[in-house]
Amino acid sequence: MEIKKILCPTDFSEVAKKAFEYAVFLASSQRAELVLLHVVDQLHGFENYEVLVLSPQEISERMEKQAYENMGSLVDQIKSAIEIETTVEHGKSSVQIIEKAREVKADIIVMGSHGRTGLSHVLIGSVAEAVVRHASCPVLVVKDMYQRPETL
Ligand code: ATP
Ligand code: MN
Fold first, then answer.
1. Relative to the alpha carbon of 119, which ligand is closest?
2. pLDDT for the residue 54
3. CB of 86 closer than 6 A to ligand 1?
4. What is the SS3 assignment for 32-85?
5. From CA 147, how far away is CA 47, in angstroms rounded?
6. For residues 94 and 135, what is the distance between their CA atoms, to the nearest angstrom?
7. Domain 5-143: which topology?
8. CA-based, 20 to 30 A from 137: which of 19, 53, 113, 145?
9. 38, 112 in Cβ contact below 8 A?
10. Is the pLDDT of residue 131 over 80?
11. Any idea which ligand is nearest the CA of 142?
12. What are the distances in angstroms from CA 14 to CA 5, 21, 58?
């Protein structure tokens, strides 16, 4: 068995950043290639309104551009010499993550237990749960280590 390809989906939250650090460690110790993915969720129901300054299309494009910039700065902080590919997809996060894992033939997905919403009373977020349930490769869910026992 080998880990040659690691998929790390990020929503740029603190927990996702921890997962990324773990993915980088794993990639460097296994000499694996890392694919960093952000999914821009599709916008629903704005199509018929002209109150927006930007069209849904323009908003999506700007979100994609911003995501590439954010991923660029994550990659810039990495000191280990590993191969990292950054990519942005549009659609439903869990579906796109699972699809990408299949597409790049990921041996493992490394992601956070929570994301931007981060409701701590939920065991894991909905995206993490859907990926754990449906992905066809192992999923490593990195928790927010700052959660102290007394908050349980
Ligand atoms: P919820 O979204 O269900 O309200 P949450 O935001 O706390 O809860 P998730 O969205 O499940 O939790 O996030 C868990 C992990 O899933 C994140 O740390 C990140 O690794 C990944 N993730 C979430 N959203 C995206 C996204 N849009 N693109 C890429 N990865 C994502
Ligand atoms: Mn989320």
1. 1
2. 82
3. no
4. CEEEEEEEECCCCCCCCCCCCCCCHHHHHHHHHHHHHHHHHHHHHCCCCCCCEE
5. 40
6. 9
7. Rossmann fold (3.40.50)
8. 145
9. no
10. yes
11. 1
12. 23, 11, 27
User: CA–CA distance from 57 to each of 47, 107, 118 (Å)?
Assistant: 9, 33, 28
58 vs 86, residue with greater confidence:
86
Phi/psi of residue 61, each to 5°? -65, -40
Q: Which two tokens stand for residue 42?
A: 């599709």
In percent, how much of the chain has pLDDT > 90? Answer: 72
Residue 111 · residue 131 · CB < 8 Å: yes
**How much distance in Å is there from the Cα of 115 to the middle of ligand 1?**
4
Q: Is 77 in the pocket of ligand 1 (CB under 6 A)?
A: no
DSSP annotation of 136: S
Q: Where in 91-147 does DSSP place strands (E)?
A: 108-112, 139-142
Strands, sheet with 84-90, edge to edge from the N-terminal-most edge strand:
84-90, 33-40, 5-9, 108-112, 139-142
